[in-house]
Amino acid sequence: MSDATGVENVPLSGATEDGKYVYCITRQEKPRDFGTIGIGEGANRVYTVHYRDLAAVVSDTPIVIYDPTRENVLAHEFVNETVMREWTVIPMSFGTVFRSEEDVCELLRSTYQAFSDVLDKMRDKIEFGLKVLWDRERVIATLERENDEIRRLKDEIDRNAQSSTYFARMQLGRLVEGALEDTGNAFVSDIHEALKDVAVASRSNKPIGDRMIMNAAFLVERDSERAFDEKVREISRKYEDLLTFKYTGPWPPYNFVNIKLKLERAEG
Amino acid sequence: MSLLTKLLFFPIAGPVAGIRWSLGKVQRVVEEELVDDSAVKQELMELQLLLELGDMDDAEYVRREAVLMERLREVRHWREQFGLQAPAGPVRVARGSGAGAGAGDAAEVEGPGDE
Known about the structure:
The structure holds two protein chains of two kinds. Chain A is α+β, with helices and mostly antiparallel strands. Chain A has seven helices and 14 strands. In chain A, the strands form three sheets. In chain A, strands 2, 3, 4, 5, 7 and 8 form a six-stranded antiparallel β-sheet that branches. Chain A has a four-stranded antiparallel β-sheet with strand order 10-11-9-12. The longest helix of chain A has 30 residues. The chains are: A alpha+beta, B mainly alpha. Chains A and B meet through strand 6, strand 8, helix 2, helix 3 and strand 13 of A and helix 2, helix 3, strand 1 and strand 2 of B.
């Protein structure tokens, strides 16, 4: 998973090895070496850069733009997963490279209070991802059986195959579309309802592709991990005929911390 | 003189100015598309989903990922051409101007409940 060799990254003119790739911010006073699990060609050593009781988890890197290939993204995530096994982390977005160690320290120094506050809020909390996809045809088949209005109209059209009008078919199409939307919304709110008590917060992201009806992230107390797990299993069993659940984690709280770096373009 | 020029040359100057204006508009639309990486990112997420669901094999994923990476590089190239900041890349912390705390912060951090 940490194997990130042979990756083509784009070097910039005047590239040096002095850059620091930053994975996450954490609260830690003692220096720590996480071994050669870093991003980039050749396994890079992952270690901490400190300011007071804050630490940035970094590895050395030339000043390059990292393409978000699966290999690179997995390397980034692997480091964060390793660190979060022991510590509460604020994850940085993929591809964050600083020009020097001093610049990383400057980030910690000037944002010390904000990082400290968020680390307190995120203490012992982890994130889970839940993507839900549906089988549209199956849901439609269920609607045709269970929705009286749709069933009646469909029967009518089937009975008068020849004489059934274009208008009746249009009407059926619209009915099905509307019922699909209602059903999708009902599924999503039922799932959110089931997980509400075992999560601290949730965030809905835009669904990916046309089969997905829910793309959410949940912030969960470490102590509630098992309870959350069970609820997810329960709700996925309830809908196993109609819905596919993609359940991932634990992640660092990518979706619940927003770091807006005020950046200057690196010159050269 | 200028009014006379306009009157005399209107049939030529008019349409030409109009074409220049709409070319400017077309160019702006093209530029916006060239520097927008959201479509590529959306496709990348769809690709990852297909792989996760087992609807696509590894070789196919790698092949299509390479195409998307090439497109991302093109977007970065055009962003540079138009003098925009690269969506990702080498950065350094903006130093504060020495004004009070807050104004000189290198980053804003938002946790839950801050929104």
